[in-house]
Amino acid sequence: MENELPISRRFFKVMVPGFHAKLTIPPAFCLKLKGEKSEKGTLKHGKGTWNVGIGRSKNGVMWFDKGWEQFVQNYNLKIGDFAVFEHLGNMNFSVSLLDSTGCDKKFLMLEDGKQQVPSQVKSPECRIEKRKPEGDVLIHQYVKGSSEFTARIKEYNVRKRSPYLHIPTEFCHSNALLQNTTITLTGPSGISCPVSLRICPGGKTLYVIMTTGWRDFFSSNKLKVGDVCIFQIDRTNSDSKSITMNVRVM
Questions:
Q1: pLDDT tens digits, one per residue of 171-193
Q2: Nearest by Cα to 197 from 169, 228, 235
Q3: Per-residue DSSP letter, 69
Q4: 137 secondary structure, DSSP code
Q5: What percent of the chain has pLDDT over 70?
Q6: Euclidean distance between CA atoms 233 and 239, whole angstroms
Q7: Who's near 241: CB < 8 A, 6+ residues apart?
Q8: Which has the closest alpha carbon to 153: 166, 168, 170?
Q9: Would you state the pLDDT for residue 179?
Q10: Secondary structure of 143-206 in HEC code, one letter for each residue
Q11: Half-sphere exposure in the Cβ direction for 172 (13 Å, CA)
Q12: How far apart (Å, rounded) are the C-alpha atoms in residues 6 and 22?
C-alpha cells in the first residue's frame, strides 16, 4: 500500500482588487486549520515579523485582517503580485513574495529589519517627487545640486502619532542619501539625534522621509508648526557611510 502524501502546509494567493484590506485563506486550507483557535497570527518575511488578526466566519472561512494592511504597505504589494504562505503552526506563517512576473520581489533592507522597499531605488525610471505649495506658504525648497534644503514644519511633522518629515527626493539622489539608512541631525540645542530614513515607493515616484529619531530631534529643539528649518549637510563630518546634517531654525 502506497504511503499517503503529507498534508500540505502551504498555499498561495494572487493579489486581486480588494486585497489591501484583508486576505482570505483558501477554504480548502482552512479545513486543515480547524484545530487552530488563535485569533492572532504572525507573518514572517526576511527579518521582519508582522502581527495580524485572524478573522473567522461561521462556515469556517478565515482571513488576515488587522495588521495585514500594514504588511501590504510595507512590502509595496500590488495587484498581480503573488504571496506563498507556509504554515509554521499556531497561525504563524512564513511568506515568500513574488512580483507579477513570477520572480522574487527584490528589496533593500532598512535598519529596523521590517522596513523594506523595492530595489528599483536606483532605477532611471524613477521620477523626482514634486511637493506642491499650499497657497503662498513654502513647504519644501531645494536648489538642484545644493547640499541643503528648506522645509516649513507642518502639523503632521510634529504630531504625537507617527510624525515624519519629507526630504526632497532629488536632494537625496544628489547627496547619496539613498545609500544610507540613518543620518544624524544636529539642531540649535546642540544635541545630535540619529534619524532613520524610509524610502516609500509610490508608482514611479519615491518618497523619502525621516521617521524613527525624528521625534527626538523636533522635541529637543522645540520645533512647532510654522517654523522654517534649513537642513545642511556637514561635509567635514560626513562620508559615504555616515551623513551628518546641521539644522538652522528661522
A1: 877 777 776 678 899 999 999 99
A2: 169
A3: H
A4: B
A5: 75
A6: 10
A7: 180
A8: 166
A9: 65
A10: CCCCCEEEEECCHHHCCCCCCCEEECHHHHHHCCHHHCCEEEEECCCCCEEEEEEEEEEECCEE
A11: 26
A12: 29
Going by C-beta distance under 8 Å and a sequence separation of 6 or more, which residues neighbour residue 142? Answer: 149, 150, 168, 170, 171
How many residues does this entry show for the chain? 250
- Comparing CA positions, the residue from 28, 26, 23 lying closest to residue 41 is 23
Give the span between the Cα atoms of 168 and 230, in whole angstroms.
Answer: 12
pLDDT of 134 reads 38
pTM for the structure as a whole: 0.45
Contact call for residues 91 and 40 (beta carbons, < 8 A):
yes
Confidence tier at 25 by pLDDT (50, 70, 90): very high
Which residues lie below 8 Å from residue 172, measured CB to CB, with a gap of 6+? 178, 208
| Domains (range + CATH), the chain | 10-98 (2.40.330.10), 140-249 (2.40.330.10)
Angle at CA 62, nearest 5°, toward 33 and 22? 140
Q: What is the pLDDT of residue 145?
A: 59
Distance CA 195, CA 14 (A): 36
Task: Determine if residue 88 is left, alpha or beta; phi over 0 gives left, psi from -120 to 50 gives alpha, anything else beta.
Answer: alpha
Residue 136 CA: distances (Å) to CA of 70, 110, 176: 35, 36, 30
Long-range contacts of residues 93-102, Cβ cutoff 8 Å, at least 24 apart: 93/41, 93/42, 93/43, 93/44, 94/44, 94/45, 95/43, 95/44, 95/45, 96/45, 97/45
